[in-house]
Design brief:
heterodimer; A: alpha+beta; Rossmann fold; 2 domains; six-stranded mixed sheet; 8 helices; B: mainly alpha; MetI-like fold; two-stranded parallel sheet; 2 strands; globular
Chain lengths: 342, 519
């Protein structure tokens, strides 16, 4: 269903390989000028969905429109070269036989002001001094900036980024991510970023679409999805989660950690709580728990405790905990996430 | 593009269908069953002897060069493949003349040390020796590549599990080499079965000499085709073995986290022995027979005009055949991911002897000759047929490096070109082919070398008055004018040697993870 300011509208799209349904009736909307994160585990169909938007794959059901023009329906597909999309690939896919400037200018064949445009683009990604270099001489971050400049060259309606950070690691990753977001914002281009990393997705995206087993399971802002997931799968995609058995009766979910209001119908359910929302109590009150393991992770300690028969994980700044020790933990009721069983 | 790929596949497969059709066609086939069996048994015996000899010589030399350090090792690494530059028939001429009863060497041996003995080259063992010397480089190159690709980690794991270095070699190292050895030997046997010039000269009657003689001497297409059938079956089996073993090898190389094997230094006498073994092999495979041909050829004044014309024909056919084959193979490779079966089928021609290929082309060719008046003497039609035969025979030889080169182009590079405004053909021309350009050159040289050395298909299909160097060498040799046959043989080596040196140096310089080489 196309909304007026939508630059990309994906409606009930399916993609099937033999018996495997890679994308299952997926809906997705990218608003003009915004960055949409498409988050899912590997094999969830997110990259396939991105490739159908790029025109690199056909679709078996539904439709895709870019900037108001229908570009994909089953059996008919506008080829990628005729769509106004730019794509940044997981491995960057820079052409090894061309220089940085030639890579960036690749899509500008026949444009009158090709050289000038290449210079402007390289300036924007701060690589003017490397224009004559070949891709293999660049760092990972530089390669990614070339890939972005190349994708931006044809003034696409939308930029599609497929796992843009998976080949980078550590501190470089955060730096490159910030650079990329800045460059995307500067260009004013709408973008879809596919990633399996919740942190990348939440930091970069204005809106998030979560995928699991080929289906879109929830869409919203990062904050909304993190605090109000509608399924266990959605809650888990956005970060580690403790799951506790619960029973719903008349709009209240009850568990050993406490109770919380819910719209779920009566019967068995889950209550989820994030390890970061659990902390040792300093008030002398709370739920009694016994420490079963302590792992020091620098910025926090990963502490496993048992409450009754329920095992829980805490991420806490308290480092003076010992295995076997009993402690009281705070369970903030507003952080309990009622979730359906199936 | 897909249409061209189908065309390429059709080019490769049509002659094979032609052979089968001719063999079962109604016509005069006066070949006796006993002759067929005799030829087949000789072919099998020859193939077994060459398989054993090349397996030992090729793998020992590869093992010495990769796993050890000794004087001359870096030169031998590529020089041991140089016998590929000389056609097997040139080696046959050299050795037959060298050990001829009335030859200079035997005369001198009778006179000075008083020994009247020498190896009988015109015999089955003699032919097996000559072909082993000519074809051991196939085993050397495949085993060498496997040894270089083999990660030291498997050996180290064996050592950590209690094996001595020798035990690790026998329990882990050698079993890992089996696929490469099988592939190399399969190639050597394919060449053995396909050889015409050497075995014909050494008076050994194989299926391939039978095929050529049935047509050239008796004019019987049906007899030739029936003799060709077992060769075709053998070719399919050998190709299957070669492909099967290659499959295991790539998986292995892709899986292993590669670390180079540290070669062992061979000191003193052991180093000298390694040096002597490699030099001996190179001498027997190239230097001695080719040197002897050159030594004898110097004394005579050849027919320069005829040689120059033949060299021009060899060069022209070599380049024409190479370019045509590589263009077709490239079309096939570019479409291979969407039509893998077609690519595999068209590889069947690779193992098929050139003589069989030519016989398969004769039936369709006779239709052309009958249908187009004047085509019999038509130079253009004849040359096209010949180039067709080369392309059909060598399609797979070109396909392999081209496919390897194209693997350097990741699917996302092609996808990137598509999203940047290029169509399928545009992406092929602007991204895939430029990146694979080195591989295209490699493929062109591989085909060029094989075409220049090719004899039986050229003999059968060449237009009237178009002689290649190989054809006139064969003509002189039949007349027992060996010093004259030396000149065209040497000129073939001169034409192919630069290409062989370039290729073997490139192959032996490549390392795992370096996708430039195709070894």
């Amino acid at each position: 269903m196309a909304t007026p300011d939508a630059i990309v509208s994906v409606t009930a799209v399916s993609r099937v390989y033999g018996r495997k349904i890679a994308v299952d009736r997926a809906d997705l909307t990218l608003a003009r000028g915004r960055i949409l994160g498409l988050l899912g585990a590997s094999g969830s169909g997110k990259s396939t969905l991105l490739r159908t938007i790029a025109g690199l794959e056909g679709i078996d059901a539904g439709s895709i429109a870019i900037d108001g023009q229908v570009v994909s329906i089953p059996g008919r597909s506008v080829p990628p070269e005729a769509r106004r999309v730019g794509m940044v690939f997981q491995d960057f896919a820079l052409f090894p036989h061309l220089t940085v400037a030639q890579n960036v200018g690749f899509g500008l064949k026949g444009y009158p002001d090709r050289q000038a445009k290449v210079i402007t683009l390289l300036d924007r990604v701060r690589l003017s001094d490397r224009s004559a270099a070949f891709p293999h001489t660049l760092s990972g971050g530089e390669q990614q900036r070339v890939a972005l400049a190349r994708a931006l060259a044809r003034d696409p309606a939308v930029i599609l980024l497929d796992e843009p950070f998976s080949s980078l690691d550590g501190s470089l990753r955060a730096e490159v991510r910030d650079d990329l977001v800045q460059a995307l914002r500067d260009s004013g281009t709408s973008a879809i970023v596919v990633t399996h990393d919740a942190e990348d997705a939440m930091i970069m995206a204005d809106d998030l679409t979560l995928m699991d087993a080929g289906r879109v399971i929830q869409t919203g802002t990062p904050q909304d999805l993190y605090t109000q997931p509608t399924s266990v799968a959605a809650a888990r995609l956005l970060g580690p989660l403790n799951l506790i058995e619960a029973q719903v009766r008349q709009g209240v979910a009850m568990s050993i950690l406490g109770r919380v209001a819910t719209h779920l119908s009566d019967g068995p359910a889950w209550i989820g709580i994030r390890p970061t929302d659990l902390a040792p109590s300093d008030q002398g009150s709370g739920t009694s728990a016994r420490v079963t393991s302590v792992g020091y992770a620098g910025a926090y300690s990963a502490v496993k405790v048992v409450v009754g028969l329920q095992h829980l994980l805490l991420h806490t700044h308290t480092s003076r905990l010992a295995v076997g020790e009993t402690l009281l933990i705070d369970v903030p009721a507003d952080r309990l996430l009622p979730l359906p069983r199936s | 593009m897909r249409l061209l790929a189908w065309l390429a596949a059709a080019v490769a497969i049509a002659p094979l269908i032609g052979v089968v059709a001719a063999a079962f066609g109604e016509g005069r086939a006066d070949i006796a069953a006993s002759d067929l069996i005799r030829y087949a048994l000789t072919s099998v015996a020859l193939a077994v002897m060459v398989a054993l000899a090349t397996a030992v010589l090729g793998s020992v030399s590869a093992w010495l060069v990769v796993m050890h350090r000794f004087p001359g090792r870096s030169v031998f690494a590529w020089a041991l493949a140089l016998p590929l530059a000389a056609p097997a028939f040139a080696l046959a001429y050299g050795y037959a003349d060298l050990f001829d009863v009335a030859g200079d060497l035997r005369t001198w041996m009778r006179a000075v040390p008083g020994i009247d003995w020498g190896p009988q080259m015109r015999s089955l063992p003699g032919a097996a020796f000559v072909l082993s010397m000519a074809f051991y480089p196939y085993v050397y190159l495949t085993v060498r590549a496997a040894l270089v690709n083999q990660s030291s980690q498997a050996i180290e794991a064996a050592r950590s599990l209690g094996c001595s270095p020798t035990q690790a070699l026998f329990r882990v190292g050698l079993p890992l080499l089996r696929p490469a050895l099988a592939a190399g030997v399969a190639l050597a046997v394919m060449e053995t079965l396909a050889d015409f010039g050497a075995v014909q000269f050494l008076s050994v009657q194989t299926l391939t000499t039978g095929v050529v003689r049935s047509w050239l001497v008796y004019g019987s297409l049906e007899s030739a085709a029936r003799l060709a059938l077992p060769l075709l079956a053998a070719a399919a089996v050998l190709l299957w073995i070669e492909r099967l073993s290659r499959k295991g090898r790539t998986d292995e190389a892709a899986r292993a986290r590669w670390r180079p094997i540290q070669p062992t230094l061979l000191k003193g006498g052991r180093g000298v022995m390694a040096f002597a073994f490699c030099l001996g092999l190179l001498t027997l495979g190239l230097l001695l027979p080719v040197g002897w041909l050159a030594f004898n050829a110097i004394d005579i004044d050849p027919d320069w005009g005829r040689l120059a014309r033949a060299a021009g024909h060899s060069l022209g056919l070599g380049l024409g055949g190479a370019v045509a084959t590589v263009i077709l193979a490239t079309c096939l490779a570019l479409s291979a991911e969407r039509m893998p079966v077609t690519a595999r089928i068209s590889s069947l021609g690779y193992a098929t002897p050139g003589a069989v290929m030519a016989i398969g082309l004769l039936a369709p060719a006779s239709l052309v000759w009958q249908g187009v008046p004047g085509a019999v003497s038509g130079l253009g039609v004849g040359l096209m047929l010949l180039i067709y035969a080369y392309a059909a025979r060598l399609m797979a030889a070109a396909l392999e490096p081209v496919e390897a080169g194209l693997t350097r182009v990741t699917p996302s590079m092609v996808a990137a070109a598509r999203t940047l405004g290029r169509g399928e053909t545009g992406a092929a021309l602007s991204v895939r082919l430029p990146i694979a350009s080195g591989a295209l050159l490699t493929a062109t040289l591989v085909v060029f070398i094989d075409v220049v050395k090719e004899l039986p298909a050229t003999l059968i299909l060449r237009p009237f008055n178009v002689d290649t160097l190989a054809v006139i060498a064969d003509n002189y040799a039949r007349d027992e004018r060996l010093p004259n046959a030396g000149w065209p043989s040497l000129m073939i080596v001169a034409l192919t040697l630069p290409a062989v040196i370039w290729l073997t140096r490139k192959i032996t310089a490549s390392r795992p993870g370096d996708t430039h080489g195709h070894a």
